[in-house]
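Side project, low priority. Logging it here so it doesn't get lost.
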Amino acid sequence: VTVSELKLWLRLEDSYTAEDSVLTAAVTAARLRYEHETGRAVLPTTFTQHLDRWPCHGDPIRLAKPNVTA
């Protein structure tokens, strides 16, 4: 959600910029809360996973974060 989209939903004029920093903080807080509650990233994110050893016998590598795209 962008600040412009939030302003449209709140029926604020896009030219009204006095509260943009507050609206930006609210959008960020909502995203962070969602990510925390669901364990899913909303924005493109890079995760690093280290393995103690390479899987043997064709065993799959289990990802710590499911539902990833590459």
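Brief comment: The helical segments are 3-10, 20-38.
Revisit when time allows.
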